[in-house]
Amino acid sequence: MTPTERLYFSDPFLFHFTGRVLAHGTWNGAPSVVLDRTAFYPEAGGQMADRGVLGGLAIRDVQVDDAGLVHHVLETPEGSRLPEVGAELSGEIDRIRRRVHMALHTGQHMLSRALVDVANAQTVSSRLGETLCTIDVDLDVLDERRVAEAEELVNSIIDDDIAIRAFFPTPEELATLPLRRKPKVTENIRVVQVGDFDVSPCGGTHCTRSAQVGMVRVLGVERYKGKGRVLFSAGRRARSELWNEAGTLRSLGRAFSCGPLDVPASVDKLRRDLTDVREALGAARAKLAESTAAELAAQLERSPDRRVVAMLEGATPEYLRSVAARLTNHPEAVVLLAGHSPEGVSVLITRGSGSSFGCGAFLKHAAEAAGGRGGGRPEHAEGRLPPNTDWPALVASLLG
Fold it and tell me: Which of 114, 261, 324, 374 would staple 153 via disulfide (CB 3.0–4.6 Å)?
């Protein structure tokens, strides 16, 4: 069987076509349809497959095998059959998805070229995902300023609206072309040429003029598996992302009663105010813990077995630790504290350096008795018990 004729090679804007069913096949266990020709792009080269409708059935996936046959995996209702061999089918490409992919793929070519020119960073792999696109380069560290310069260079090429040509050169022509990277195949090599800016072997769908890309936007730079990675977007996807971010910025501006460009200053002021409040709250909590610890210290002194048991309303685990730290200065102290909150009763049991009380073992018994959880070491244990737990009564019952 001859390889499927791929109509998108000559016209990436061909969104409607007809093709004849040559055979039924399978792809990853799913039945597929093989046509004599197709405008659907199969997943390859880091670019996702097209979607759309073929013969009235939705396309679930498009893949190509080693023989060059394009497999169309269809959404077939239960009990239905694939279109018969020999049938003439009408195909319709999901135009928006195709245009997004064309912009992303063309943008990737141009950004890869610009990274070479500006940062001397050669692309080793690229991925055009549903939500994120990446370019991995051969440098372990990428200078973000250089990447920003590359982004600016690409967008200047977009503004210039230069012609983009996709063609199959003769071997003689190929030998004269300044390819950015070597072809992955040895025959039927297709080349995409962005004016005089970039020439690369590629079988994907691309724009025919640079302005059709719309824009290229770098989203970030990071290290990935020891190499530099550039995260980017382009075309409709980049535009949608910018609109969403601008909408969020405007909403924040309304919330802060300022203009969108004044939001960073408002956020900085809010952070400073929050830091001041946290410091003041921390100081107040420290004073409160000191006062609570002083009251409980008196109880500790009166206790013949040097134990203090208390339920502190609304106390967080952090607050319990702060209070307990002030009480365990006494070597023989055994501190059994609890804090009541809507989520339950936080429990902390700790001891002084001279005590042999088993904190972890006691809390384990308490959790079993009350239906909670917790544990720890002999010298310190923490846990949580049900909200209705009467901590002093529970401790009294367990200690006899």
Answer: 114
